[in-house]
Amino acid sequence: MTWVNQVVQGIFLGGYYALLATGLSLMFGVMRIINLAHAALALVAAYMAVLLVDHTSLNPWLTLLPILPGALVVGYLLQRTVLERSLRAGELVPLLTTFGLLIIIGPVLQRAYSPNSQSLDPGSLNGKGWSVTSSIRISAFAALTLGVAIAVLGLLHLFLTRTRMGREVRACAQDPDTAGLVGVNARAVYARATAIAVATAALAGVFYGLRTSFTPYDGGTQLIYAFEAVVIGGLGSLWGTLWGGIALGVAQSVGFQVNTQYGPLFGHALFLIVLVGRALLEQRGVPALRLRRARAEATTG
Amino acid sequence: MTLLQVESLDVRHGLLQAVREVSFELGEGETLALVGANGAGKTTLLRSIAGAHRPAAGHVLLDGKDITRVPAHERVKLGIALVPEGRRLFPGLTVEENLLIAGANGRPGPWNVKSVLEAFPLLEPLRRHRAGSLSGGEQQATAIGRALMTNPRVLLLDEVSLGLAPVAVDGVYRSLEKLIESGATILLVEQDLGRALKVASRIACMLEGRIVLEGTPAELTRERVTEAYFGLKRSVPA
Fold it and tell me: Is the CB of residue A271 less than 8 Å from the CB of residue A17?
C-alpha cells in the first residue's frame, strides 16, 4: 500500500512542478524562449517573501500581494530590456542571456542573505491533511498546491482563448510578423507574456519556500525539474505541463520508494524515455505528438 | 487627391537591392496594379509601404505625412492594411478570431465582423473553423476580410490569385470589384496581367526593382507591358 501512497504523493508533488513549469512552458510556446533563469527567479520571490516576513512579520501568504505585481513588472522589464534584444540577435541567444541571469542570481542571493537555508512557515496549514486510508495521507498544503496549479492553468487557458489580449498572444506566437500587419504591437504582447510567466514563477517560488527549506543555489535543480515537466508534457502545450508535472512527480516518488537516493533519478529516466521515444516515433512518421506543431498551436492548450 | 506617395524608395534584403529608387503616387479612389516577374521587387515594395520592411532610403507619405519610420502596427491605425502574399492567416485561430484581432487594432468605420461576413458570404458557415483548415479561396477571402476589418484608407493586396483555382480567383475578384466600386483606394500586385488590366485604373510594371512602365490600361497594350515585364526592349543589361 505504500506504493499507492507514493503514487498519490507523487501526484501532489506534480502539482508543484506543474505550477513551476507553467511560466517556462508559456515563454517557450509564445516566444520560443527557454528561460533558464525561470526557477532562479522563482527562488528570488521566495527570498523576497523571507525578507518581508523577517522585517514586517507579515503572514507568508500575504507576501504574495506585493510579490506578484512586482513579478509582473520584473517580467515585463526583463523582456523589453534583455530578452527582446537577445531574440533579435538569434534564436539561441536568449539561452545564453538567461543562463547568465541564472548563474548571477545564486551568488547575489547568497550575499544578500546567507548560504544557510531559509524557509517560510505555512502557519495553520502545518501538518493538516486527510488520512484516506491507513497508509495514504494527503497533506492539505500539497492539495492546495495542486489546486492552485490547476487554477492557474485554467485561468491562463481562459485568458488565451476568451480575451482580446490572449488572442493577440496566440497570434504573436504563431506569426509575429503578420500580427504587426494587423495592428498588434508584438513587442508589447511578448512583454506581457513574460510578465505573466515571471508572475507564475513567483507564485511557485513562494509555494516552494512554504513547502521546504531552500538555499541560494536551488534555482539550478528546480529548473531541471521544471524543464523535464515541460518536455514530458509536450513542448508548447499548456495543459501538457500539468500532466508532465504529475508524471514527473509520480516518477520521482516511486523512485524515492525504491531507494531514498533514487527519486530524481527516476524522474530523469522518465524524461529521457519520453524524449527518445518521441524522437523515434517522429522518425517513423507518427504525427508529431505536439512537438512540431508547437509553433502553430502554441499555447492553445 | 493624393493619398499615398512613395519617393525614391530603396529597399534591401541584406546586400541585395530589391527596390531601386521607386517613386509613384496613388490618388484616393484609384486602383494601381503592380505587375512584374517573380523577384522584381513587388512584394518587398508592398511590405515597405505597410511597414514590415525598413527601407534603406526614400520616403513613404500618407496624406502628405512622412510615415517612413512608423512601425507596421501603427501604420494600421493610420489606415494602411496589407493582405500578405500567401494569405498568412493565424492558423490556430478561428476565422472569427482572425477578424476580431484586426478589428480590435484598426480604425473605426463601416467594416466589422457582420459586414465582412456579408461581403464574403462563403465565410459565414466557417466562422468558428480554424483558419488553418480552410481551402485556398476561403483563406484568401478571410485574409481580405481581415485587412478590411481595420477600415483602411489604402488597401494593399499581394498576389491574391496565387495558388488558387480559377473559380476561386473569380470569386475573389468579384469581391474586389465591389470594393473598387465603393471607392476604395487599392494597390494591387498581380501576376495575371489580364485580370490586372481589367480591374486597375493604372498599371505599373516593375523589373529588377525599378518601375519601367506606367500608364492606364487604355494607354498600354499587352505587348508593351509584356516587353517591359521581361525587359525585352533593353539593349544593355541593367
Answer: no
- Residue A292's pLDDT is 39
User: Is the pLDDT score of A193 beyond 50?
Assistant: yes
Calpha distance B90→A299 (Å, rounded): 13
Distances from the Cα of A158 to the Cα of A182, B92, B122, angstroms: 23, 16, 29
CB atoms within 10 A of CB A57: 7
Provide the grid cell at A34. Answer: 527557454
Count of beta carbons in the 10 Å neighbourhood of residue B181: 8
* Residue B6: pLDDT over 80: yes
A171 to chain B, any CB pair closer than 8 A? The answer is: yes
Q: Tell me, what CATH number does A92's domain have? A: 1.10.3470
Q: Is A189 on the interface with B (CB under 8 A)?
A: no
Query: What does the angle CA A69 – CA A72 – CA A74 come to, to the nearest 5 degrees?
Result: 110
Residue type, B221: T
- CA–CA separation, B237 vs B39, rounded Å? 16
- Confidence at residue A219, expressed as pLDDT on a 0 to 100 scale: 92
pLDDT band at A294 (very low <50, low <70, confident <90, very high): very low
Contact A242, A18 (CB under 8 A): yes
Tell me how many residue pairs between chain A and chain B have CB atoms under 8 A apart. 74
Helix (H, G, I), strand (E, B) or coil at B17: strand
* β-bridge partners, B94: B130
Q: Is B90 close to A297, i.e. CB distance below 8 A?
A: no
Residues B43, B41: Cα–Cα separation, whole Å: 6
Query: Where is average pLDDT lowest: A248-252, A282-286, B101-105?
Result: A282-286
Cβ–Cβ < 8 Å for B59, B8: yes
Give the CA distances from residue B115 to residues A204, A242, B80, B110, B111, in Å, rounded to whole numbers and listed in that order.
46, 41, 19, 8, 6
Domain encompassing residue A276: 2-300
User: What is the least distance, in Å, from the CA of B44 to any CA of chain A?
Assistant: 14
Which of the four pLDDT bands, split at 50, 70 and 90, describes residue B238? low
Place of cell 521544471: A226
Q: In chain B, which residues have their Cβ closer than 8 Å to the Cβ of A175?
A: 88, 90
CA A127, chain centre distance (Å): 25
Q: Residue A182 and residue B76: Cβ atoms within 8 Å? A: yes
* Residues with Cβ within 8 Å of residue A123, at least 6 apart in sequence: A59, A60, A61
Q: Judge contact between B81 and B89, C-beta under 8 A.
A: no
Q: What percent of chain A is predicted at pLDDT more than 70?
A: 94
If phi over 0 gives left and psi between -120 and 50 gives alpha, with beta otherwise, what is residue B215?
A: left
Residue listed under C-alpha cell 494607354: B219
Nearest-Cα residue of chain B relative to residue A180:
B73
Phi, psi of A214 (to 5 degrees): -140, 155
Q: In this complex, do A177 and B52 lie within 8 Å of one another by their Cβ atoms? A: yes
Q: Does B146 touch chain A (CB under 8 A)?
A: yes
As for how many domains chain A has, the answer is 1
Is B91's Cβ below 8 Å from some Cβ in A? yes
Q: Which residues contact A34 (CB under 8 A, 6 or more apart)?
A: A24, A27, A28, A94, A95, A98, A227
CA distance A101 to B97: 37
